[in-house]
From TrEMBL:
It comes from the Bacteria. InterPro entries: LSM_dom_sf, MS_channel_C, MscS_beta-dom_sf, MscS_channel_2nd, MscS_channel_C_sf, MscS_channel_TM-2, YnaI-like. This is Mechanosensitive ion channel protein MscS. SUPFAM superfamilies: Mechanosensitive channel protein MscS (YggB), C-terminal domain (SSF82689), Mechanosensitive channel protein MscS (YggB), transmembrane region (SSF82861), Sm-like ribonucleoproteins (SSF50182). It comes from Polaribacter glomeratus.
């Protein structure tokens, strides 16, 4: 039985020995070099001389000092290496930068100066890494860290829940310092932001904007507090596992706060821009505020999302490439949306109209109410709504009646062919006087026309061409009504008859039948009296202040 026991024991020992893999120094590729460095600096496989083989051109003592500092820096910053992502290709080249080299950067974002490169057929830590590691170490672990270990008593190294007592006290002091810094920086940030706001807007107080600035000062102070923690937390020398989670949390919190700061900054900028647009006559700028606001917020959120994904190790380059291809396919499938977007940009650049302008765009006639991201809303005179895609609106001819200086009104007054010349001249003179006295028409010389213009099929045509001062459609109709009523009263007083399409049959000789010709009173005194009475009546019907203002 004893012999069998020894045989079984020998068998298991031999099997266990053969199962163990002997790790040797390997510098053949980036993965092998980095694995060699970290494997021989672990507690259960601590052989710093073998780890020092990853440094080229230094004495063994100096090389050991360098590799130890590299590991402490990475551990202090919580940078945990994922060996599955390190390339095993002996001829690996970094193709991310502008040029390609045989090098591999462990953490391109957070620690770009620590990397390995191929030299003399093997992979070593780069000459730049070796030259800068002392300064990097000082930046991560300030001068007092090494001296702190010498003054900590033995009782300070007692562990509570796996954390040494001095580390717990240091963490508590760090949190208190961060709280004081947060409260102080918050007040300073708000004071500086208000000063900047006053310089831009030239306004001493704005309660609504002050609330936004306070909300902006809050995350700014948090960001500064996080940077303070990020700077001094490695000094507590927690193990890698704790540092990894702490710095991951700090980076995520920092990214979230940065997103919050940028969103609030967008809100502040848009608020200031909105106040600026309110002071301008161009109301099209007012429509640009919500569009820019949504665009900038979306941009901030997209960049923030990519930053968070990179913190979790997602390759955003591949993601961007996929998004670009998908975006191209989506753009091809939605060409109309892209055209409308370009049309929107062109409308805001060219500014063919403004809000509340009366426009004619093809078959659509109405008032511009809103310019959106994709389409423009036009309200017609019957209050119906037209929604015109901006791509079409940017291509068609637009008659912007809202940019007119005055509203032109032109018509022909037809009087009977048998009207005496004296009454025609008196009628023209009276209409001119009415236009001069009308409070809503231009009365300057050459700004109106009332002339005997020609001979129509059944009437003598008198041209009336005037310009109304108000551009509003409703005011124009009211002004025309007052003008028309005054002209009708003038014609009635003078005895001038308006013609209508008719046919006159003249019978020169017919017994006992009288002619149908009207008997016109052409007495000059009566004509002057009628014109004077018509003008006086028009004055009485219109406010004196309006007439004086018009004159």
């Amino acid at each position: 039985m004893k012999i069998k026991g020894f045989i079984l024991l020998f068998f298991f020992i031999t099997l266990y020995s053969n199962a163990q893999e002997t790790v040797e120094v390997d510098l053949s590729n980036p993965h092998a070099t980095i694995y060699t460095h970290f494997y021989f600096l672990q507690n259960d496989s601590y052989e710093p001389k073998k780890a020092a083989a990853t440094i080229l051109g230094l004495s063994e003592k100096k090389a050991i000092e360098k590799v130890l500092k590299i590991k402490k820096v990475l551990d202090g910053k919580g940078l945990s290496i994922d060996f599955n992502k390190i390339p095993t290709n002996p001829n690996y080249k970094d193709s991310i930068g502008y040029t390609t080299f045989n090098k591999y950067i462990l953490f391109p974002e957070r620690m770009p100066n620590i990397y390995v490169e191929k030299t003399e057929g093997s992979w070593y830590f780069s000459a730049e890494t070796v030259a800068r590691i002392d300064q990097i170490y000082k930046d991560v672990f300030p001068w007092y860290v090494d001296q702190l270990q010498e003054v900590i008593p033995v009782s300070g190294h007692k562990k509570i829940l796996g954390i040494e007592l001095w580390q717990a006290i240091g963490l508590l002091l760090l949190l208190v310092a961060v709280l004081v810094i947060f409260l102080l920086i918050k007040k300073i940030a708000f004071f500086i932001l208000r000063k900047i706001q006053h310089q831009i807007t030239h306004r001493t107080s704005d309660l609504e904007l002050d609330k936004v600035l306070k909300k902006l000062a809050h995350p700014i102070s948090l960001l500064i507090s996080l940077s303070f923690i990020n700077k001094f937390f490695p000094s507590l020398q927690f193990p890698l596992a704790i540092n990894t989670w702490v710095f991951l949390g700090l980076n995520i919190a920092g990214t979230v706060f940065w997103i919050y700061v940028m969103l609030k900054l967008v809100k502040v900028v848009m608020r200031i821009y909105a106040e600026f647009t309110e002071r301008t006559d161009n109301r099209l700028d007012d429509q640009l505020v919500p569009i820019l606001n949504n665009f900038l917020k979306g941009l901030v959120l997209v960049f923030g999302l990519f930053k968070v994904l990179r913190l979790f190790g997602v390759d955003t380059t591949t993601l961007l490439a996929g998004a670009t291809i998908g975006g191209l396919a989506f753009a091809l499938a939605s060409q109309d949306t892209v055209k409308n977007l370009i049309g929107t940009i062109m409308i805001f650049l060219d500014k063919p109209f403004h809000i509340d302008d009366w426009i004619e765009a093809g078959e659509v006639v109405g008032t511009v109410e809103q310019v959106g991201f994709r389409s423009t809303i036009v309200r017609a005179a019957d209050t119906s709504i037209y929604q015109i895609p901006n791509s079409k609106l940017s291509e068609i001819v637009i008659n912007n009646k809202g940019l007119r200086l005055y509203r032109r009104y032109q018509t022909n007054l037809g009087v009977r062919y048998d009207t005496p010349p004296e009454l025609i001249q008196a009628f023209v003179t009276g209409v001119r006087e009415i236009i001069i006295l009308h409070p809503d028409t231009r009365s300057e010389p050459d700004s109106y026309n009332v002339e005997f213009a020609g001979f129509g099929d059944s009437a003598l045509l008198i041209l009336v061409n005037v310009y109304f001062k108000s551009l509003a459609w409703g005011n124009e109709q009211s002004s025309k009504h007052r003008l028309h009523m005054a002209i009708i009263k003038l014609a009635k007083g003078l005895g001038v008859e308006f013609a209508f399409p008719s046919t006159t049959v003249t019978i020169e000789q017919f017994p006992e039948k009288k002619s149908l010709d009207l008997k016109y009173n052409t007495n000059q005194e009566r004509i002057d009296a009628v014109i004077l009475k018509s003008v006086e009546d028009f004055k009485a019907e219109n406010p004196v202040e309006d007439i004086i203002e018009n004159l």
